[in-house]
Design goal:
Elements: H1 7-10, H2 18-31, E1 37-40, E2 43-46, H3 48-57, E3 63-65, H4 72-84, H5 91-115, H6 126-135, H7 146-153, H8 157-169, H9 172-179, H10 185-191, H11 196-205, H12 207-278
């Protein structure tokens, strides 16, 4: 049997830790390879660790064909869904996988929208529309919100925000630390706000320094909040005083206008009284 191992596909999901790999090897040596390897044609898409162990020890294994895939994106989405359902996958890994799924599905939907016929154009024939519908992500959850991503990954929305920050800002050394469980998602997100060279230095120094760096970032953030609030109050005070002065001036002008109006009314009343007194009986 010819089985092709694509190294990029093999690395698409984070590898097992040495301890997890050793446990899997012990299990296969004791009980055999119980789960079938999944192939797409000749391409191995699930069971890379089992395949390596069985090949190394000359152990038999079974295979099953996945026939519903049309593109490598289909393979990636299937791999993501498989690992999102596994209890052994960490919160960080599930969050990363859910974000990858969101990116794939949204890219598909964007391509489908771009390929859709404009108003007045003829729709493509039914046989041509079927692959386009599959590529559009029909039936796939779009994961358009952080809440949807959190549900798919079985984590909180705040953890999704932190994982996004880690993916976009963290140095590779910090990412590796959170993947391996050296530091928490919360700590890694805090360290990710530091300059790259400081992140690398903290990760190189080890777990304690990473945690201390995260603590320093949090404490600095707590100090900035009262200072920012005080600055905001100071900046608002002149505005409040200016608004009060403008209101007082407006009231003064209104009082002056009313006083002048009252004086004019009194003068008219006095004039009317004089005319009535001078009129003959």
């Amino acid at each position: 049997m010819n089985i092709v191992v694509n190294e990029e596909l093999k690395a698409y999901i984070d590898p097992l830790t040495p301890q997890e790999h050793e446990a899997l090897e012990r299990s296969i040596l004791a009980e055999g390879c119980r789960d079938a390897l999944v192939l797409w044609g000749d391409l191995l898409i699930d069971g890379h660790n089992r395949y390596g162990i069985c090949t190394r020890h000359g152990l038999p294994f079974n295979t099953v064909q996945a026939t519903r895939f049309q593109t490598m994106e289909d393979v990636h989405l299937w791999m993501i869904d498989q690992h999102l359902g596994r209890r052994s996958v960490s919160d960080f890994q599930r969050g990363v996988l859910a974000l990858r799924k969101k990116e794939i599905v949204q890219a598909r939907q964007a391509r489908a929208a771009a390929a859709a016929p404009a108003d007045g154009e003829a729709a493509p024939p039914a046989e041509a529309a079927a692959p386009a519908a599959a590529a559009s992500g029909a039936g796939e959850e779009a994961l358009a919100s952080r809440e949807a991503i959190a549900r798919a990954a079985r984590i909180s929305s705040s953890q999704v925000v932190m994982i996004e920050k880690i993916r976009s800002q963290a140095a590779p050394e910090v990412v590796e630390a959170v993947k391996s469980g050296v530091i928490s998602i919360n700590a890694a997100a805090a360290v990710a706000t530091l300059p790259q060279e400081e992140q690398v230095a903290a990760a190189t120094a080890g777990k304690d320094e990473l945690r201390q760096a995260a603590k320093r970032v949090r404490e600095a953030g707590k100090k900035r909040k009262p200072a920012a609030a005080a600055a905001e109050n100071v900046s608002e005070q002149p505005q409040a005083e200016g608004a009060a002065t403008d209101e007082l001036q407006a009231l003064r002008e209104r009082v002056a206008a009313l006083t002048a109006e009252n004086a004019a009314l009194r003068a008219r009343l006095e004039a009317l009284g004089d005319r009535e007194a001078a009129a003959p009986f």
